[in-house]
From TrEMBL:
Keywords: Coiled coil, Cytoplasm, DNA-binding
Subcellular localization(s) per the UniProt record: Cytoplasm, Nucleoid
Major site of localization recorded for this protein: cytoplasm
Family named by the database record: Belongs to the histone-like protein H-NS family.
Keyword Repeat: no
InterPro entries from the UniProt entry: H-NS_C_dom (IPR027444)
Domain (DNA-binding protein H-NS-like C-terminal): residue spans on this chain: 56-95
Descriptive protein name: H-NS histone family protein
Record's keyword annotation contains Nucleotide-binding: no
Organism taxonomic ancestry: Bacteria, Pseudomonadati, Pseudomonadota, Betaproteobacteria, Burkholderiales
Coiled-coil residue windows: 4-31
Amino acid sequence: MTTYQEYKAKIAELETLAETARKNEKAAAKEQILSLMREFGITIAELGAPGKSKSGKKRAPVPAKYRDDATGQTWTGRGRAPKWLEGKNKDQYLIK
């Protein structure tokens, strides 16, 4: 019967083999990507960064649409309505 220690040793050996295989596959993938980039003349700038908009511009802040004249608090009209506007007619607080 196999002991716990023998299983731990096998796991460590397999993790080492898996890490080596991952490094080799990653190197091969990088070479394939670079080869395709050279073949088609693609630059890194053309690929773009993940998670960023294509224009790279930041959004301008949205102007306030509602204002409470008593406190000076404002709300853009987007998202959840603020507490000071709950149960009240929004049209009364509309900025004109």
